[in-house]
Each structure stands twice: as C-alpha cells, then as structure tokens.
Amino acid sequence: MGSMSTVEELVARSNRLGADPKNTNYAGGNTSAKGAATDPVTGQPVELLWVKGSGGDLGALTESGLAVLRLDRLRSLVDVYPGVEREDEMVAAFDYCLHGKGGAAPSIDTAMHGLVDADHVDHLHPDAGIAFATAADGEALTKECFGDDVVWVPWRRPGFQLGLDIAAVKQANPQAIGCILGGHGITAWGRTSEECERHSLSIIERAAAYIAEKGAADPFGAPLEGYVALPEEERRTRAARLAPVIRGLASTDKPQVGHFTDSDVVLDFLASERHPELAALGTSCPDHFLRTKVRPMVLDLPATAPVEDTVARLEELHAAYRADYAAYYERHATPESPAMRGADPAIVLVPGVGMFSFGANKQTARVAGEFYVNAINVMRGAEAISTYSPIEENEKFRIEYWSLEEAKLQRMPKPKPLQSRIAFVTGAASGIGKAIATRLAAEGACVVIADLDLGKAQAAAADIGGADVAVGVAADVSDGEAVAAALREAVLAFGGVDLVVNNAGLSLSKSLLETTERDWDLQHDVMAKGSFLVARESARIMIEQEMGGDIVYISSKNSIFAGPNNIAYGATKADQAHQVRLLAAELGPHQIRVNGINPDGVVRGSGIFAGGWGASRAAVYGVPEEELGAYYAQRTLLKREVLPEHVANAVFALCGGDLTHTTGLHVPVDAGVAAAFLR
User: Residues 569, 621, 631, 632: which is the catalytic one?
Assistant: First the structure.
C-alpha cells in the first residue's frame, strides 16, 4: 500500500480525534496541514494550507470539508493587517487566498493554522483542557502541570490577532508542543501529522491525569437534601409530564424541538449544593455558549415537589430568565449589534430529573445538551484544581452577537415548512402511514412512527432517517395505557407533539349477516376508539405546550359512501369523520386544528389491502385482485388510481402552513367519487 497523501493524513487524523468526545466536542475545533502541490496555471510548486472549513465535525470530516488556501498569500495578510479593532475584515480577505475553488468556506480560526510555523496544527476543545483554560489561576496551573512543554495564552476572541499571538508563542518557545488558550481550549502542533496528533493527545491526557491526581474529591460540594435523582422509571415519567410545558416555554419566541438527557453527569451535578452558583456563572468556551446561551435556566425545587407547584415555578423562572436575558442584551448591545435573537433558554435543568435542551431541529437540540454536559465536566475539572472562572459576560456577548456569527446564521438554508414540528403517525410502519411519515420528515418534521409491531416501526424509522429525524414506538391504539406510553416516548424523544395523524386501521369485508360481534368490536376498537384515545392523549400535550397543533384523521370515502358488505368498516369510518367535526369545535380555542382526509381504495402499498381486504373487495366487485386498483380508478371521475403518496400530499397540504385558518374539513383523495361528495 502506498503512503498517504497530506490530505489523506489530515482527514484520518481529524476523524480519529473527532471520534472521541474526550478530545473535542461535536463540531468543535479544527485541524490543518501544510504541503506542496503543483499550480495548474504555472506548473510550479505552490505551498498550500488545508484546514477544516467553517462548520462540520472533525469526526465526519471529508476532503470536501477542507478549505484550501495559498500559504504565501495568507501569510502576506500580516502586512496589511489593520489591527485588532478591525480584525474581522481579515475573514473576507481569506477568500483572496483560496487555491482554485478553495473548497469549504474558511473559518475564523484559519489564521491560527496558517500563521503558526508548523506543518500540522490541531485546535481542540477537550473538557480537561478547558478546565485549565477556565481555572482562576490557569496560567500557574499550566506551568505546574506541563512545565515548558505547553504555554499559556491569555483569553482573546478567536480571530486574526489570536493567530498572531499563537504564532509568536510558538516562535518564542521552540521547545513547546502546544498551548492552553485562556477561556477557550488547546492548540498543538507538530512536524508530521503523527507528531501533531501525539502532542494533542499528550496535552489532553496530562491535563486529565493532573485533575485526577491533584483535584478535590467533591468539587461541586456536598449532596443537596431532596435533590437526589429519582428512580429511573419515575424520573422519566416525570420528565415526560414536564417536557411539553418546558418546550412551550422555550418556544415563546420561536418553535423549538427538545432533547432530554438524564445522564449521571447531569444528575450528579444537580444533586450537589453548588450547582446553582456554578450554573449562574455560565459556560466559557465559545463553542459552548453559542449553543447553550450564556447560562441555563435552573429549577430551584426538589424533584419530589408536586407537579403543579413545579409547573408554576417553571413559569415564574422563565419570565425571570427572559427579563434577565433582555437586560444582558441591553447592557452590552451597541448600535451595530444584530437584533436580539430570542430570550428563551436553550438549556433547562430540573434537579432529580435531568436536562432539557432545545434547538430549531433535533440535532441542534441534542448537540446543545451535549455541550452543556461538556460545560459541567469543565466546571468539575476547574473547581477540582482551582476556581471556575469563565470569560467575562461582555466577551460572551461580543461572540454571541458577533457580526461574523450573524453572517453565518444568515447563510443557513431557509427552514423547511415543517421544521421544528413533531409528528406522531399511527399505523406508520407501512402503506399510507409510512408514506405520510416519509413526506412529513422530508418537509422538516421530526416523526414518531407508531405501530402495533415495534420492530417494523423501528425499521420504518430507520428507512426515513436517523434518530434525529424519526423514531419507532410500539402502539396498540385500542389500549389507553399503550397510547399514553407511546406518546410519552414521543415526548421524551423530541420534547412534545404538534401534528398527529390518526391512520391506524384494518378492515374486514363482510356482509351484515357474516359480520360477527368480534369483527365489529375489533374495527371500532382500532379506528373509532383508537382515534379517540390518540386524539385525547395528544391534545393534552398540545394544550400544555400552548403552541397549537394539528390532528388529522385518515378516514375514508366509506364514511359517506354506502357500499355493499362493509357495515363494520363503513360505520367506524363514519364515527371517525364525526370525531373530526366534534374535536374541531372543542379544540379550536386552543388553536388545535382538526381535519380529515377521505381516500378511496388505496390498493398498491396498502397494508390493509395486502392483509386480505383486497381479495375480499375484488370478490365483491367480481374482478381479479391484481386489477382492483385499476377497477377503482375506472369508477372515478378522473380515472386515476389513488396511491399512498397522494394521501401524504393531502396531509402536508393541511399542515404545511398555507391552510392556517382551516379546521373541521374533510378532504377527498379519491380521484372523484360522486357518491362520496360531501353535501
């Protein structure tokens, strides 16, 4: 096997470092390599810098995620650098240093990598390293732990001047393998990729070993009476009860998706007496507070407090948090500052229960929670060896409302129509339900696939996307407790529910005299009773969220059309159709819209038809089963067959944002069956 190229080495090193959370957090840090390539214009060698571009994650970095710059031009920027007061202008100058198309957009840390005189550079955010960086006497501790191997660099906002600072440190300390960046993270370098990685890991491991050996045993203080973690089942039940309330509060400015974490790291922190004061200090590393805001919202009641008292206190704390955040903005904003982006918390800590984190989508919410776990680890390490001392509040504001950060936000893709909405679809492992779930996910929703068969539900969710997009849960919709349990899982997965599709169904095609009592009960239990149970439980969640919502019933043209040998199915579909009208009237004051869809026979892709209904209906109409779809199409006005995707389209039409003032409507998706016209 031939030797790896410079770029291949860089990508491999980045992936190894990024794969271990002890080295850096998600999307945190960047890596680089310098080397020669041939300039296609001159045919002469040219020195290049390959550096991780803006955004992305080291663990999943590929060559396309690298920015590629000419080193001579990048270093020439030193001669035109206007000074720290105007250093933001240098980011635009990076574009004039790109080689060819340049690859990914250069990040703010590009100067650090280009100006440091080393062929390979790593900049990382390890918890152990940030513990030193945020310790009150971090400089002295760095000297004690590392001697002359690692040099302290005082806090400076990421940018061109920080690159110059680190380059000067490297030049003045030829023996050094890296540095601790005050309030921020670490940077290491090496002559080879292997040496650079070894130096990065050495700094991280030595910092962690020092904390373990020298650190205090209980840096968060003694246990706080009444704040111990609840037993797991009780804890998660309470989390599911509180999640919709907390999500609604966190969505005051704009809808958010939630993530719940009850790891030992979080629970132990919240059970300790010093957690309120430490949480109030906020996070420090820029990667942390950009995702978690400067500080979390912390409930100051034990987990055993009555739920009603907890909800009332959360509402009080949320109002106080919003006022405090607005005051923070007013203290530091200048006429040039971007408008305040929102005053709701991104992290809510509930002692004895866990942490709720929020974002515009599930990944953002999950990553925010991961970053706060990093922050807890940093606080533990800093308090173990010193005193946790994050950067000043005004510095946090300068980064949170940095014009470069605002520009990055403005470059983000326009949100999809259903972004931040959480859908719960019953009978969604196949057929119409899966088509609906697939369409909703494609339009930006987080989707819970609820089905009688858990394995099939999970497989369908995997087909649609990873756990940040879709999850599968078991749900016997005819069982009230099973429905409640399925919706608890939905709430724990995504924070709440906004869009419910009552799709679960089955059918037995029999005449009146052949229909048994069991046949009747089974169909009414699944569709009439099941829809009622799902609507009731999901409406409770929506009302607690105070964010409105949608409930859609997949009824049938048979709710109106009187066909032969269809007494049980037709009657239960009529029941569902009237539930739509009744619930639209009742739930309207809560801004919950209830609508229905009346498909004609969906043969292809339908679980009901594949399960025997198709053969029965074909026999009734005297056609071969394989021609049933075509038969149905020919009896319609449009002469078109109805497919699962057509029903999914109608669900999106009702919930996608254009029909905001429509409720109590039944939409026919039957290609035109005159006998089923509403009148």
Answer: 569
Q: What is the 3-state secondary structure (H, E, C) of 473-487?
A: EECCCCCHHHHHHHH
Using a 10 angstrom Cβ sphere, with 0-12 exposed, 13-18 middle and 19 or more buried, the burial of residue 206 is middle
Q: What is the mean pLDDT of residues 285-297?
A: 86
pLDDT one-digit tens code per residue, 169-203: 999 999 999 999 999 999 999 999 999 999 999 99
Residue 1 above 50 pLDDT?
Answer: no
CA distance 548 to 319: 21
Here the tokens at position 515 are 């229909």
* CB neighbour list of residue 200: distance below 8 Å, 6 or more residues apart: 17, 23, 122, 124, 178, 186, 188
**Distance between CA atoms of 159 and 236, rounded to whole angstroms?**
43
Query: Given the DSSP bridges, would you call strands 120-124 and 98-103 parallel, antiparallel or unpaired?
Result: unpaired
Task: Encode 264-328 in three state secondary structure.
Answer: HHHHHHHCECCHHHHHHHCCCCHHHHHHHCCCCEECCCCCCCCHHHHHHHHHHHHHHHHHHHHHH
> What kind and span of H or E run contains 515?
none
For residues 608 and 601, is the Cβ–Cβ distance under 8 A? no
CB count in 10 Å sphere of residue 522: 16
What is the CB neighbour count within 10 angstroms for residue 588? Answer: 13
> What Rg value do the Cα atoms of the chain yield, rounded?
30
In this structure, the strands spanning 178-181 and 185-190 are antiparallel
pLDDT exceeds 60 at position 355? yes
Say which residue, 603 or 636, is predicted with more confidence: 636
Please report, for residues 431, 567, 601, 638, 677, the alpha-carbon distance to residue 628 in angstroms, rounded to integers and kept in the order given: 16, 20, 9, 16, 22
Question: Which tens digit of pLDDT belongs to each residue from 325-353?
Answer: 999 999 999 999 999 999 999 999 999 99
- Contact residues for 658 (Cβ-Cβ < 8 A; gap 6+): none
Within 8 A by CB and 6+ apart from 530, the residues are: 426, 477, 478, 483, 502, 504
Which amino acid is it at 655? Answer: C
pLDDT digits (tens, 9 = 90+) for 79-109: 999 999 999 999 999 999 999 999 999 999 9
Task: Count Cα neighbours of 607 within 13 Å in the Cβ-side half-sphere.
Answer: 18
Q: Count the Cβ atoms, other than its own, within 10 Å of residue 42.
A: 8
Whether 631 sits among the annotated catalytic residues: the reply is no
d(CA 162, CA 151): 14
Q: Which residues pair with 179 in a beta bridge?
A: 151, 187
Residue 40: half-sphere exposure toward Cβ, Cα within 13 Å: 3
CB proximity list for 392: less than 8 A, separation 6 or greater: none
At 243-256, the pLDDT tens digits run 999 999 999 999 99
Residue with tokens 């280009």: 114
- Region for residue 546 given its phi and psi (left: phi exceeds 0; alpha: psi -120 to 50; beta: otherwise): left
Tokens of 101: 């198309």
Tell me, what's the pLDDT at 599? 93
Q: Is the pLDDT of residue 674 over 60?
A: yes
Q: What are the C-alpha distances in Å from 174 to residues 118, 168, 187, 498?
A: 11, 10, 15, 59
